[in-house]
Each structure stands twice: as structure tokens, then as C-alpha cells.
Amino acid sequence: MCGLIERRLLKKTIFLVFALVFGISSIGLLLFSLRGSSPSRFVGLEPITPILDFGDVEQAHISGSLDVVNRSQKRVKIVAIGKSCRCTEVVALKKVVSPGEKATITCQWNTEGMRGQAKSDFTVFYSIDSDSEPGMYSCTIQVQGNVIPQYDIIPDRLEFIEGKAETKTIRLVPRKKDQIIVKLVNCNSPAFFVEKNSDQTIRVTFVSDEWVFDQFLKPKVILDTSCLSEEYFILPIYVKAGYD
Q: Whole-angstrom Cα distance, residue 115 to residue 56?
């Protein structure tokens, strides 16, 4: 009796394993066929280079261009260009791109107010002239560069110690011979008294008795300068707990 039960269980186990293997194989083939026919895998417009690198640039309006090529066997039409930042102006010089053809895209990048490594991106949306490949497709291009400011602020951050009154000096140092001055200076916290010492130096005094920690208030010094490409500069202030 026990042998009969064991044989039945063995047959049932074999059947279940076969059904499971067959089911997994069928699902795999189905997914593979769907993936192969999915419009999302269609390769149409492709940038010659996905990054438009301007290298070292000043705080100004700079221009550049790059080409996208139609890698498909179908004609594509550029319908829109989406930007991640208002600092870029992008124009496609050709709207309809035949198979194998290139289209030039011009980009004007406004780096005013930026410092150091900066980047943005834009996305080219296009449709395909084919009933078998419906929908909207896209390719994304990154814009980047190292923005060299016209002046430095020394130091670029202030640190004070809780309970210890102290005065520190900020200096504005132009990188060129242009005379850049601080017109106005302000602070968003009553625990700090700020004043101009000269056209290019500011004194910041920590009034420790007025200091109350607030996780939502990040103290900072706001400088209003005469520099047209970076009129405002925000200097963060950090207060450490206790004495060193």
C-alpha cells in the first residue's frame, strides 16, 4: 500500500515539475518576443556624442552645437525639445530626418550665476514615419562645463562656536582687473550682525546670546555685488555646539 502511494506521489511530482518547466519556458519566450517587438527598443535618433562639453567657460551666454543621426530605416520627425533648466535655449535646425541623415542641434547655455562644475540636459522628442512603430521616442543630451567665476569670496563659509561671541571678516577678491564691489549685505538670522568694512570686506559678528538653534533656519550672509554675471552670492554660516 505504501509503495503504491509513493509511486503516485512520484508521478504527481514529475508532472508538476514538467508543467513548471514548460510554463517558465513559455513565459520566457513570450517576454522575449514582446521585448523584440516593443517600440521602446527602437533606435531612431542618436546623438553623435551624448555630452556637449564646453570645458572651462566664463559666466556668460555661450553657444555650441552637436549632431544627431537617424540610425533607423524610417524617417523621423523632431516634434519637441524638453529642457531641464531655463538656462538653455535649444533649436533643431532640421525637423525631418531621413534614414542615415544627420540633424544639427544648437544650444545656447547661460552660465551666469553658476560656479565650478555645472551641468544641464535637454531631451529631443521625435516620432517615426511608420504605422508599425507608433508612439513618441526620445534621446537625451547633457550639457556641461567648468564655470570660472569673476570673483572669489574668502572664506566661502563661516563657522562659529555656540556660546562664543566672535567677529570674522569676509573678503571679495576679483579675478580680473574689473572693480567689483559689495553694494549691500544682509543676514537672515538676528544672531549675526553684518556690516561693510569697505567696498570689498564685510564683518560678521556672532551675537551668541541671540542664538537659538532652528532646524528650519539655515543662517547665511547675502551679498549684493556690482558683478552683472553674478549679482548675488550666498555664504552659509555654521554654528557648532559647545567649545572646541
A: 11
